[in-house]
């Protein structure tokens, strides 16, 4: 009987130690809706929006225990085409930047080639390791950054975009 209890206690101790060192992966989304893209003619186009990681309840809950933060993908969707729009296509690039006025802090997420200007038109861009490193650095330094879409359009543009970030984080459970 004594040996059985010792074995059970040893097994329980091993299981608890494994739990204490456990890292949990959690997927979450951060939506950035209502981003206007307006140009008066064909040519260069650019828009930006401030993203605050602190607006995510999941990030706020686990902020001090997060060990990795990965961008799985981003969906850029045209949610509204306004009456003054004559553009049929836009092409561009999605980047993230620590400081809107400092291009040296920019990291490229990906391209938006031949993006048809239609309501609910969506392009998905996969994440990459440089973006993951950028996000983790931003998390530990205030949590804010800018998402920038820049490129060209083939006509006067008046649309509204939605940028939906699909991300995951690894955090320590901190049970012990």
Count the beta strands: 8
Mean pLDDT comes to: 89
Distance between the amino and carboxyl termini = 30 Å
Strand order of the largest sheet: 1-8-3-6
Report strand %.
Answer: over 45%
Instruction: Sum up the overall morphology in one term.
Output: elongated
| Uncertain stretches | none
The name of the CATH topology is Jelly Rolls
Number of domains: 1
As a whole number of angstroms, the C-alpha radius of gyration is 22 Å
- Just give the CATH class: Mainly Beta
At CATH's second level, what is the architecture? Sandwich
Q: What level of helicity do the residues show?
A: 10-25%
**What is the helix/strand order?**
HEEHEEEEHEE
How would you characterize the largest beta sheet? 4 strands, antiparallel
> Tally the helices: what do you get?
3
| Class by SSE composition | alpha+beta
What does this protein structure show overall?
With 176 residues, the chain is α+β, with helices and mostly antiparallel strands. It has a single domain (23-172), classed as Sandwich (Jelly Rolls). The chain is built from three helices and eight strands. The protein has helices spanning 2-20, 57-62, 129-139; strands at 23-39, 43-52, 66-81, 89-97, 106-116, 122-126, 144-153, 157-172. It has a four-stranded antiparallel beta sheet with strand order 1-8-3-6. Strands 2-7-4-5 form a four-stranded antiparallel beta sheet, covered by helices on one side. Strand 4 and strand 5 (106-116) form a beta hairpin. It is elongated and about 85 Å long. The mean pLDDT is 89.
